[in-house]
Amino acid sequence: MKQSATTEIFNHLDIGILVLDSNGTIIHANPYAETFFRTTLNQLQNRPYKDVFILKNSKKEIDYTPLESPRESQRLEKLPHWTFLEEHQTEHAILGYITGISLTGTHDAHAFVFIDMTDQYHREEDEKAFFSGVAHDLRSPMTTIRGVLELLENPSPNMDESQKKDLMKGAKDSTIHLIDLVNDLLNVSRIEQNRLVIQKDIFDMTKTIRAVIENLKHDASIKHLTLTYQMDDPNIPKVIGDESKCVEILTNLLSNAIKYTHEGSVTVSTATESASVRTRITDTGAGIDPRQAPLLFTKFGQTGQSRSMATSKSTGLGLYISKRFAQLMNGSVGLEKSELGRGSTFFFSLPIAPRVDINHST
Length: 362
Known about the structure:
Blueprint: H1 5-11, E1 16-21, E2 26-29, H2 31-36, H3 41-44, E3 54-56, H4 65-68, E4 77-78, E5 83-87, E6 90-101, E7 109-116, H5 118-153, H6 161-192, E8 201-203, H7 205-222, E9 226-230, E10 239-241, H8 243-259, E11 265-273, E12 276-283, H9 318-328, E13 332-339, E14 343-351
Parallel strand pairs: 9-11
Antiparallel strand pairs: 1-2, 1-7, 3-5, 4-6, 5-6, 6-7, 8-10, 11-12, 12-14, 13-14
């Protein structure tokens, strides 16, 4: 293809351009397309485009219609949203256009202009899953509350006070769950809009841990679990961070450990490691499939059958929020180890607070 000013411009665009003749043979490809297809112009030229890639419609069915329809003008025709392009067994979500072009004074070729938008596609899919999960988790407690109110509005003549109390308890539990969900959603919104306020103070992590454990002792005792705090080093240094956010993180990690452990124990330990204090929460629960571990810290990232478990009232946002809280405090939260049927260990670390030399204070 003869080099021209237009071709020069195309060669410097961050979009892929393939020029196809009327038979679907590739005549030209710009550098972006060469990089995208991991090949060279010489290897692309004179090849039918179907030998280079597979085109799919929004249902991910093979569909070459956009490239096979005749082009009667140089008007841009937009590809359907979304269109998928598969090359080297890798699937990309693309946006693009098809337009007829003139090479010899007639419209005897067309250009396939595209850009890889796979990351945006996955973000959109994640958002859909997120809002679907929100709707599901909002509906469940609200349905329970509505049902209880209807029963109490028109109680059965045989309903005694004990049954009424049970219904009220169910409504109360559902209300608490609903408030927790709304708080989680507000936290997610603040995090993603960079509106979350982090107050960094120096505090004693061991005291904070003991307070959280005390608050959760009752939950553990109901399930006949042993909840203990092991601190081998009595000289754990103070940390710097937002203590209220740390309480939320620790509460989430411990609550999850208790929730998904049906027998045995939950153990908390603290140690100084390099420039941070690391807290570990170890349980004897069901463990996590390694293939599902990457989902843990995503929005609505419950794994396995936990979302469908009758005992699970988690929104699936807790670990995502905890990880983001920790990152904003220059700390970290993660899964240290897990074994199916043997339990898991999660960790939470925060930086050690700088020492203040009182001899140099004024």
